[in-house]
Amino acid sequence: MTTERVQHTCPRCGETIVLKPGETVAFHRCNPDSLMPSIPQRVWNLAKAAAEFVADGCKTVSADEYAARLAVCDACDRRKEVWCKHRKCGCNRLIKAKGRAWKCPMNKWPA
């Protein structure tokens, strides 16, 4: 009989749960700050971001500022692949980091 523990990643919040052999995840309480915004919230956030981008003249940041923003995102615990999991965001960070009008929801990007 094996005594190895199995790791399970919660598909909603990304938290790793360690399971005993034969154990399954029946219930897991996700940290609300770890969850992506709902689809309607993400659509609303996208609409607001598009309006901000247009109001700013569709300006983008320099290549250096873009790289600096992505470096911050890469080190962030709210990052999930290309997505920002912050409840006020939910953006594709590769796109959002490019727009001059757009800000990090946690104010982490350099000014």
Give me the secondary-structure topology:
Blueprint: E1 6-9, E2 16-19, H1 39-55, H2 63-75, E3 79-80, E4 83-84, H3 93-96
Antiparallel strand pairs: 1-2, 3-4
Please characterize this protein's 3D structure.
- The protein has 111 residues and is of the alpha+beta class.
- The chain has one domain.
- Helices cover 31% and strands 11% of the residues.
- The protein has 3 helices and 4 strands; from the N terminus they run E-E-H-H-E-E-H.
- The protein has helices at 39-55, 63-75, 93-96; strands at 6-9, 16-19, 79-80, 83-84.
- The strands form 2 sheets. A two-stranded antiparallel sheet has the order 1-2.
- A hairpin with a 6-residue loop joins strand 1 and strand 2.
- The protein is elongated.
Global geometry? elongated
Number of helices: 3
What's the helical proportion of residues? 25-40%
What is the CA-atom radius of gyration, in angstroms? 18 Å
Look at the structure and give the mean pLDDT. 84
Structural class: alpha+beta
Order of helices and strands: EEHHEEH
Number of strands: 4
> Any low-confidence stretches, pLDDT <50, length ≥5?
none
Note the gap between the termini.
57 Å
List keywords for this structure.
111 residues, two-stranded antiparallel sheet, elongated, single chain, 4 strands, alpha+beta
Summarize the structure.
With 111 residues, this protein is α+β, with helices and mostly antiparallel strands. It is 31% helix and 11% strand. A two-stranded antiparallel ribbon has the order 1-2.
